[in-house]
Amino acid sequence: VSYGFQEVAPEEKTRRVGSVFARVAARYDLMNDLMSGGLHRLWKDDFVRAVNPRGGERILDMAGGTGDIAFRMAKRGAQVTVADINPAMLDVGKERAAKRGIEGLDWSEQNAEVLSFESAGFDGYTIAFGIRNVTDIPAALREAYRVLKFGGRFFCLEFSRCEWPVFADVYDAYSMNVVPKVGKVVARDEEAYQYLVESIRRFPDMSAFRSMIAEAGFAQTTARPILGGVVAMHSGWKI
Ligand code: SAM
């Protein structure tokens, strides 16, 4: 089944992705726990450990959604701007921050491809499970490079390709068959979760994505698989 995202014009893809996240915003956090068996929490902990934000550092958490990465970084004393194209996701994030008493975050509606921020203003740029939803990924990487200071670092956490033979087949069957059904029952939106699975399958593998990061200007790029590559962490320096 193709949800048809690649066959449409770029503006149409951006609009459809917008509607997917607007539809699932309220159930987004619950769905993450259900679909990953809670593992996404460990991946995010691991990611923020790698980012290692220090007190006072300015970090842009792009496609920050409901705040999972931003909250972890704010707890370490970073000054975090949570940016996302979707106001419904940001609204859920603001509510969660208020409930948890997390203060000092900036919330900003932004398209990762064309940021309104000045150049060279951030010490770090993070994007977790966001970049595969962006229509023009090279443009988003160039913008990440632009808004970082020299000496700043780019970090990305994203689904990738599992390279463990048997596990890869099990994971494939699970994502194709189970995830859309759970989406149907819990988020009442099978189509949205069909899209999410498809977008994971279409995303470039680790080495191709690493090359894209270098192409945007980043140096000393790294790629690290988690769970055999179900998820991967990438980074690069602006130097
Ligand atoms: N980073 C959060 C996390 O790890 O839980 C949210 C990830 S969520 C799977 C993906 C987010 O990307 C959504 O909130 C969506 O609105 C956002 N997004 C999609 N396309 C975008 C774009 N072009 N610019 C900015 N955000 C975008």
Automatic annotation (TrEMBL):
Signal sequence residues: none
Binding locations of S-adenosyl-L-methionine: 66, 84, 111-112
Oxidoreductase recorded as keyword: no
Domain of life: Bacteria
Any Gene Ontology biological process: menaquinone biosynthetic process
CDD domains found in the cross-reference section: AdoMet_MTases
Catalytic activity: a 2-methoxy-6-(all-trans-polyprenyl)benzene-1,4-diol + S-adenosyl-L-methionine = a 5-methoxy-2-methyl-3-(all-trans-polyprenyl)benzene-1,4-diol + S-adenosyl-L-homocysteine + H(+); a 2-demethylmenaquinol + S-adenosyl-L-methionine = a menaquinol + S-adenosyl-L-homocysteine + H(+)
An MF annotation (GO) of this entry: demethylmenaquinone methyltransferase activity
Gene this chain is encoded by: ubiE
KW tRNA processing (keyword) present: no
Protein source organism: Sphingosinicella soli
Function: Methyltransferase required for the conversion of demethylmenaquinol (DMKH2) to menaquinol (MKH2) and the conversion of 2-polyprenyl-6-methoxy-1,4-benzoquinol (DDMQH2) to 2-polyprenyl-3-methyl-6-methoxy-1,4-benzoquinol (DMQH2).
PANTHER family recorded: 2-METHOXY-6-POLYPRENYL-1,4-BENZOQUINOL METHYLASE, MITOCHONDRIAL (PTHR43591:SF24), METHYLTRANSFERASE (PTHR43591)
Record SUPFAM superfamilies: S-adenosyl-L-methionine-dependent methyltransferases
Keywords attached to this entry: Menaquinone biosynthesis, Methyltransferase, S-adenosyl-L-methionine, Transferase, Ubiquinone biosynthesis
Protein name: Ubiquinone/menaquinone biosynthesis C-methyltransferase UbiE
Gene3D superfamilies, per database record: Vaccinia Virus protein VP39
The protein's annotated pathway: Cofactor biosynthesis; ubiquinone biosynthesis; Quinol/quinone metabolism; menaquinone biosynthesis; menaquinol from 1,4-dihydroxy-2-naphthoate: step 2/2
